[in-house]
Write a structure and sequence with these properties.
By secondary structure, this protein is α+β, with helices and mostly antiparallel strands. It is 59% helix and 17% strand. It has a 5-stranded antiparallel sheet with strand order 2-1-5-4-3. Helix 3 packs parallel to helix 4. The radius of gyration is 45 Å and the shape is rod-shaped. The mean pLDDT is 88.
């Protein structure tokens, strides 16, 4: 819109013929009198909320006001913001799903080793788990069990031999 020094509309788009000769609204009129150039939010004569930019043209004292409806710049902003939030939620969901999958790949072999370590039934340790660290630990546990079993067999054999010698010595003495 184009206003004269008194705040009267000289030209306006849209509906120039309808509004020509009318005074600016009270909020706009106050701004027209104050600063030669400014930006602010107001409402048009059609009750449309707009972001308005004013610039006074000297020496004539006329003022040019350009209003952009909020829906023209806020609509795309909210749409973009919605897409960004939706993308972030999807990325977060995928990340959480992958984290759960990887955690399962780690905890399953660990649980198998814990079950074996707590077993008193002589269960076999898990074979290849797919996790290098747990495979190395399973191998170490397997070696320990084999060494312990071998030592126990040797101890039983030595104990048997000792008992036989003691029995023989007692028999000789009697």
């Amino acid at each position: 819109a184009l206003f004269d020094r008194e705040g009267t509309i000289i030209a306006r788009w849209p509906d120039s013929n309808r509004y020509a000769g009318q005074k600016a609204g009270p909020a706009l009129m106050a701004r027209l009198k104050k600063a030669p150039a400014t930006t602010f939010e107001t409402t048009t004569l059609d009750n449309v909320p707009v972001l308005t930019a004013l610039s006074r043209v000297e020496p004539f004292g006329w003022t040019v006001a350009i209003g952009t409806p909020h829906e023209d710049y806020l609509g795309p902003l909210w749409q973009s913001l919605g897409l960004i939030i939706a993308g972030a939620v999807v990325a977060l969901g995928v990340g959480l799903g992958l984290a759960r999958y990887v955690a399962h790949q780690i905890t399953t072999p660990m649980e198998a080793l814990v079950a074996y370590a707590g077993s008193t039934q002589g269960d076999r340790p898990p074979e290849v788990t797919g996790l290098r660290e747990t495979d190395a630990l399973a191998t170490a546990i397997r070696r320990f069990v084999e060494t312990s079993e071998k030592a126990e067999r040797e101890l039983v054999a030595l104990n048997t031999t000792l008992e036989q010698r003691i029995a023989a010595a007692v028999a000789e003495r009697d």
